[in-house]
Design a protein that fits this description.
single chain; 140 residues; alpha+beta; two-stranded antiparallel sheet; 3 helices
Length: 140
């Protein structure tokens, strides 16, 4: 910025650009901290510690209504026909699928966004990883 100022470009123009950019993001909700829900079973199972991610199923998350009284199985392998939940396809020994489903519960009933790209770091919840260019390019 200092080099721009030295080139006699008006400081007020730069200030207006920075302020406009910031206020536009604030008004649209962009840049606001989004919280990712917590899997209540995260510390009670070993499936969360699986290092490999599954196949990219979709480049968008899936909105689903979840009940706090139920336990769910989220498909990690990316091969389930009932995405985003597991249908047991990983059990077929001929497919040689290494990933196992992630069992999870939510703290309160409501609508949640589950990851469909299978690359999230907050399994099973979407954390925005699907926005990365290599994931967007992987699914047409």
């Amino acid at each position: 910025i200092m080099s721009i100022l030295r080139q006699n470009i008006g400081a007020s123009w730069i200030l207006r650009q920075v302020c406009h950019s910031y206020s536009s993001r604030a008004l649209s909700g962009e840049g606001a901290a989004k919280t990712v829900p917590k899997n209540l079973l995260e510390d009670k199972q070993t499936a969360v510690s699986q290092k490999e991610n599954g196949a990219i199923f979709d480049k968008r998350p899936f909105k689903i209504h979840l009940d706090k009284a139920k336990t769910y199985s989220w498909c990690l392998c990316g091969k389930s026909k009932s995405q985003p939940l597991c249908d047991g396809l990983h059990k077929n020994e001929f497919l040689k699928i290494k990933q196992r489903p992630i069992r999870f519960k939510v703290a309160k009933s409501g609508d949640y966004w589950l990851c469909n790209c299978k690359q999230t770091t907050h399994r099973p919840f979407c954390d925005g990883t699907h926005k990365l260019p290599h994931i967007q390019a992987a699914v047409k």
